[in-house]
Write a structure and sequence with these properties.
Blueprint lengths: L2 H7 L1 H23 L8 E8 L4 E7 L6 E5 L4 E7 L17 E10 L2 E8 L3 E9 L7 E9 L2 H21 L20 E6 L15 H18 L4 E4 L9 H10 L4 E8 L9 E6 L6 H10 L2 H4 L14 H25 L5 E9 L11 E8 L3 H7 L2 H27 L1
Parallel strand pairs: 9-10, 9-11, 11-14, 12-13
Antiparallel strand pairs: 1-2, 2-8, 3-4, 4-6, 5-6, 7-8, 12-14
Helix pairs in contact: 4-10, 8-10
This protein binds zinc ion (ZN).
The site of zinc ion has 6 residues, from loops.
């Protein structure tokens, strides 16, 4: 007899089964839970300002190792920490904190998180230390910033950079960018890399409630799901969690997978709150208009926001083959952008002159057709509401899938000729 039929014919036995399986899964959870260390939680981040210094304090549930260093262009104080459970809200910076103009935090790499402080003027880290719990207060990381001179700041940046380089030499060397592959060596199934903009220590733009990094992640998950469901494509995501990925690495992920299409997803913010609608961008050294140029500048800030030291970045790859491929890549990118405009038109509001051009760093793979889509404006109330709605995501992701279908149908016909 079918065991299921036995179960259903005997309710008491079914109950027994259920209890047994519940007990089993419970003990399984216990067994799994035991060796996992509880996360170190950042309970609070505070700024204490006096006449002579600005003190940054992190309240933590456990003690912590940290490294603090300075970066220039623009001036920043960076605190590297292990993975921490960060609060969702960023503390307000009072006007009296004259040394600090901005502050952000979040996951940086797999095992590392980061706090980045924007310095309004040259500063010096006068003291940095961890305090053990006492008189009801938890573990605390304390960093004291005091005013400094331009020259002293620059000298400290140099010193810190040398220390970082020595440290990096001990650990693994950064992988070189993937080798250039001619288009003839293409994949059996088209490969699509989907990129959720920002993440971790770089939150991106803000709406009233929504953060760009969360909006882009939710949308790319929906898009990846729909593309995979067609079974026609191999789909990769640059990130599938709240973590920071450098712009160059996003490009390298696309190149490493020999991608046939790279789609970077973002959401914009602007002073004029009535501006709304989706827009799509392809790479060009000369921007189509002032707004596109400003947007590219803003999106290209991602690495600065996350506290990357550009002095340690290897030079861009130079290759004659790349120049030859670039024109074809550019034409294909434009072709895909036009398909997206046509298909999205009936699904959501579009910004006027929807397809624009600018020098986005994330679109610079010479051999991968690449577009950047700004889903809408987080600063527009109606757009923000849509951007966090799953039915809107489904609809617009559907329009992108249709565009992808059209794109590969077209390129296959073209290459068969
Ligand atoms: Zn963005």
């Amino acid at each position: 007899m079918n065991p299921l039929a036995v179960l259903f014919s005997r309710p008491r036995k079914l109950l027994g089964w259920l209890l047994l399986s519940l007990a089993f899964s419970f003990s399984f959870v216990l067994a799994l839970g035991a060796p996992v260390q509880a996360a170190n939680v950042v309970k609070d981040i505070r700024l204490g300002v006096t006449e002579s210094r600005t003190r940054v304090v992190l309240d933590l549930s456990q003690k912590v190792d940290f490294r603090v260093f300075l970066l220039d262009k623009p001036r920043r104080v960076v605190i590297d920490l292990p993975s921490l459970d960060w609060p969702s809200q960023t503390p307000e910076i009072s006007k009296s904190a004259k040394l600090v103009s901005g502050l952000r935090f979040g996951q940086f790499t797999a095992g590392k998180s980061r706090l980045v402080i924007d310095a309004a003027s040259p500063v010096r880290v006068a003291k940095s230390f961890v305090l053990a719990p006492s008189s009801g207060l938890p573990h605390r990381l304390v960093v004291d910033l005091v005013p400094s001179s331009t020259k002293a700041f620059a000298q400290q940046v140099k010193k810190d950079r040398e220390a970082s380089r020595a440290q990096n030499k001990k650990t693994a060397k950064a992988a070189p960018p993937p080798a250039f592959k001619p288009r003839s060596k293409r994949n059996a199934k088209p490969v699509i890399v989907i990129d959720a903009g920002h993440g971790g220590v770089d939150p991106g733009a803000h709406g009233r409630k929504a953060k760009e990094k969360a909006v882009t992640l939710a949308f790319t998950r929906e898009l990846a799901k729909q593309l995979r469901a067609t079974k026609k494509y191999k789909v990769y995501q640059t990130r599938n969690r709240d973590i920071y990925i450098p712009l160059r690495q996003r490009v390298n992920i696309a190149r490493k997978h020999n991608a046939d299409l790279f789609i970077s997803i973002h959401a914009d913010a602007i002073q004029r709150k009535n501006v709304r609608g989706m827009s799509i961008y392809t790479l060009s050294e000369t921007a189509s208009d002032k707004e596109a140029a400003a947007l590219a500048r803003k999106e290209n800030q991602s690495d600065i926001i996350a506290g990357i030291d550009f002095a340690d970045q290897p030079a861009e790859v130079a290759d004659i083959l790349i120049d030859l491929a670039q024109r074809e890549t550019k034409n294909l990118s434009v072709k895909f952008a036009k398909l997206v405009v046509d298909n999205a038109r009936h699904k959501t509001n579009l910004l006027d002159r929807t397809h624009r051009f600018a020098g986005f760093r994330v679109l610079k793979a010479p051999d991968v057709p690449s577009v950047l889509i700004e889903l809408g404006f987080l600063t527009n109330r109606k757009d923000e509401k849509q951007l966090v709605t799953s039915s809107w995501r489904r609809k617009v992701a559907g329009a992108l899938v249709k565009s992808v279908d059209g794109f590969f149908r077209g390129t296959r016909v073209a290459s068969a000729r």
